[in-house]
Fold each of these.
Amino acid sequence: MKISPFFIYPLMIACAISKSDAQVAFQNRESINFSQVKITDKFWNSRINAVTNISIPVCIDQTEFKTGRIRNFEKVAAKKGENHEGIYYDDSDVYKALEAISYSLSNHPDPILEKKAEEWIDKIAAAQLPDGYLNTYYTLVDISKRWTDMDKHEDYCAGHLIEAAIAYFNATGKRKLLDVAIRFANHIDATFRLQNRHWVSGHQGIELALVKLYKTTGNKNYLDLSDWYLEQRGHGYFDKKLGSKDYCQNRLPLREETEISGHAVRAMYLFTGAADVAAAKNDAGYLKAIKQIWEDVVYRNMYITGGIGSSGRNEGFTVDYDLPNEAAYCETCASVGMVFWNQRMNLLTGESKYIDVLERSLYNGALDGLSLKGDLFFYENPLASAGDLSRSEWFGTACCPSNIARLVESVGNYIYAKSNDALWVNLFVGSTASFVIKEQKVELKQVTNYPWDGNISIAVTPEKITEFELFVRIPGWANNQPVPGDTYRYLNNSSEKFSILVNDIPAIFKMENGYAVINKNWKKGDVVKLNLPMPVRRIVAIENVKDNQNRVALQRGPLVYCFEHSDNDGKVMDIVLPDKAIFKTAFNATLLDGIVSIQTQAPVAKISAGGLTVNSVNRKITAIPYYTWANRGKGQMQVWVPRKITNVSLSSK
């Protein structure tokens, strides 16, 4: 089988041509692979460089030296009967680190880093059994018990191996790890996809990976195996072994499901895989189900930061509108999964609202999981802190560090998309990318200072004059809708409107599914200029969200803001933000790696010395982007602040 390196696997998307959900036409649209996009963006290059120079070395140090993750592979190959170190799913962290390394090698070729990756790959390959099975936990503990416990993450680890193998192959053209992944996938296929054989994965993730493998190799068995995994759910198989049906989304067959439940990360990986299978197999049933589930997530179970999964008890969902702030779980990996799933939903439907949610999760919920320097991580991402929280160097369950690392390094995956006769600009990130449209090569060059201002310049350079449609996303936040659904709204609508110029002349365009669509004969020198006004906006929640009654949050552009101790005399729980407060914004290049902060004069509640009365004094208060908090030591923070003094939580301390 001949496989071309640097393969860009296409994601098929569905476009409804009938009012019936059962009648769906599928056509080609591709998400442009990060390896085909050169990031020139100041904001994102800063984040990518932090991951390349700091986060990935941290992952290597922890994986190889401070924990037993790499040693486990060495022990399997040595065959000396040594004990397994760590947790049964630790192999997955090795694979996610390798995936992040792969993306980094595309962004910043580094022979030393590539040599380290090769060392790991050799050790992984040496640990693979002759029949293709590869899992250090069962191989070291008791190989006779492999594939007996649905919640021991064997196939979850396999999924991350497959993703790492494809990423490394695309980055380097080397296929040793890819061959390992193929042998393991073949082993799984031969083991499970048999008549009257059933299996429900306790932790999803292999489904989306198998579709990637299908797209990379052209072997339809992997697509069918992914579909088989999806079909196993919700039929009562192994309920006693898996525990709660809700926890791993096993209560109903997927096509019958309408509501979100259970563990947030597992759900995101499952629905991403379902979207991939729906696209590849033209499955309208999967599409209908995941659209309904998406609405349940976004309309009733999502934080304003794009974070999901409010409960630490199940690392996931509880009941609608249960969105506490200080107790919010909001696992970093869940926000990473929101990016994956919403990209697929956009490709399936062509609707910009999915990119709106992707952008919200990316810039707020996910980025918050990584310190500005790149050396510390959040597992949980609450929206308020009494002052006792800080990022950690590592975790016993260390899924989040490598997960946020691989997302940041591959952010180029989410900027552009194309079909045979159209281009889509989804994210506003300074970059260049080349496409082939109507058999003509076209280059896009995007220049912007986003997210700090809303001026975006897109130079369109075809080899020859070519007619095609350019879809430019107009974010919901720029059209007086902060988030799809009615859980959150702006306190007041803004009269400021976006504008689009083509060659400095007002553009002729139509609005379609949240995109401004410009159709013209494009020629060298054409430049599209988009201006998105970025006033400070107040956001309020509906009464169902009990914790946010009579409170307000601030947003500017795609960024949610918070108040942190360092900028507000050490305390923020005493702040009141009246509806008539006037905001000022300023860019400070030396603050928190360079940010736009928000300032205003507002009353601050104070308890008298005797503790008998409450007074208020006006002082300057400052808000910073939510993703930047906890970079200056422990202290108070909150996103949602009271609109009236009666809602302030006071302490005499």
Amino acid sequence: MNHPIKKDAFDISRRNFVAGAAGLTFSFALDPVLTGRVSEAFAANEAKLNAWVSIGTDGTVRIICPAAEMGQGVLTSLPLILAEELDADWSKVKAEFAPANPKLYGNPHPLFKGAQITAASVSVPGYYTPLRIAGAQARRVLIDSVAAHWKVPASELTTNRGYVIHAKTGRRISYGDVAKFAQVPAELPKITEADLKKPEQFRLIGRRNIGRVDVPSKTNGSAQYAIDVQVPGMIYASVLESPMEGAKAQVTNMEEVTKIKGVTRVLPLPFGVAVLGDTVEATQRGRNALKVNWDTSGAVSKDFDSVKAKEEYARAGRDPNAKTMDAYKVGDAPAALKGAAKVVEATYWSEYCYHAQMEPMTAVAKVAEDGQSADIWVGTQFGALAANIISGILKTTPDKIRIHQQMLGGGFGRRIWPDAAIQATILSNITKKPVKLILTREDDLAAARPRPMTHHILKAGLDANGKLIAWHHRLVSENVDAVASPPRFKATGGRDYIGWRGLDQEFYSIPNVLADAVREERGMRVHAWRGIGSGYNKFAAEAFLDEVAQAAGTDPLT
């Protein structure tokens, strides 16, 4: 059958602090493995704000959001988590994006292990407990400061909506007023999960009448995306993207294009042909007028045809001698299949998928005159990755690359790889001017880093009683990690951390399971796409399970 498918405690001692007349700033590193390294992170980033929550003398509570806002609501959910334990007045909370600094703002979720990336829908699960602990710790510092100031036991003080309260005397003081005299100790109080509020004590988490903080700005048009950024002295760039990795451009009408009003320069580069100019319109006219011969002799994908490749993928899926790597294994599936009373088999496909995010790829880059630092305005899911790659291009260090996070006009994995920021940086370094790169929808599609085309062969073995005893899922696909994360690909011996997600069968009690993968090398720019590998792997597996149930004469849910 062919079916096309179009720890109890976080150790946060030894924390540096900043306190002054303007208010209080509490700093935390979330990942326990970073204990003792926070001062190092501060020393390397003295000019940056390394804080989770700041309280101004006017009562404003500024909470840093470590994740990218691309429509999923983290500008609300993550600050809300911290504000809950802080007992902050939500009307006075202001959320700001964190700088690219994984030592302080990395997500401790097992998927990311401290990487500062927004993906896989794990911002809330990853940051939930650490942010609560951070909020509770800040609250404890406020209480201790008021206790010392009023000379009362800290145990007699409570908090509520931005106030510290002493019930015995009826006194209350706002967090803003506490900020005028409070001192943050070098050794912050230890907080464990046992010290946190019980769900029935929540005042903010779970409330239905708390709206998303990003909605008003998105409604009135004041929300700023990378495509909205304006920098003094900025020039514009458009890029005719290379049709494939390794293709080299030869522009045959350079002189003609540079004569177009508003066009100042045409630059053939490894990623395509850039047209620089005074306006967006001029660069678009120049880009559309380009005549380019592409030398694809060095491109792996020069002869690739996805339609013809399907036959080759299918052969690899059926080939018992195909070179495979085990992605998931329990028991002995091949043997169990041989001994099964009945074997059910099905084939599934998925096509290349374009992310089609609403805002095409855009970035503004301003490289310093000496080329040793840069400011980047971009909506990115992985600002730290952008800083690392760009610092390598400029031969400097990541702390010299300031990523100014903007709202994302859709992400879905497309804004993990910082190609727009990289290209804008290269152009800014060449011109020594701030450069705003805007891709058109058409060029964004040409530059797309799609979800890979995949082929799946699934086999299931049933015993004489119709019980599912064996399962084999073979995936044929390009390796996403080899393109999207070569260091991890190399470190894991060629495994596909992204593309193999969802091949496991941990949720069903099947005694013999094998999921293996055949790697295709086609030269495509394959990347993560919404749900990563689970999008195709789990779909195929769950659809197949229905077919197995039908063959066994039983209800799929049962």
